């Protein structure tokens, strides 16, 4: 796991979607999951790449992708 990896999840207190770098104490707040995911992808592209994990409303990871660098297991990647 790199220092630049990001996660998108829903904050329980106000139902907002958060785009946060793994290990950071704060993140960027968005109204929709799509907005948060798009913003996270752009931040990863501009900062050299990394892994993006998106959690659903239930808190389980629903999507993982490598953005901006070569995917080390791309032959097994059935989603992208």
Tell me about this structure.
There is one protein chain. The chain is of the alpha+beta class and 80 residues long. The protein has one domain. The protein is 18% helix and 32% strand. The protein is built from 1 helix and 5 strands, in the order βββαββ. Strands 3-2-1-4-5 form a 5-stranded mixed sheet, covered by helices on one side. Strand 4 and strand 5 form a beta hairpin. It is globular, with a radius of gyration of 12 Å. The model has no long low-confidence stretch (mean pLDDT 89).
Short key terms for the protein model shown above:
alpha+beta, five-stranded mixed sheet, 1 helix, 18% helix, globular
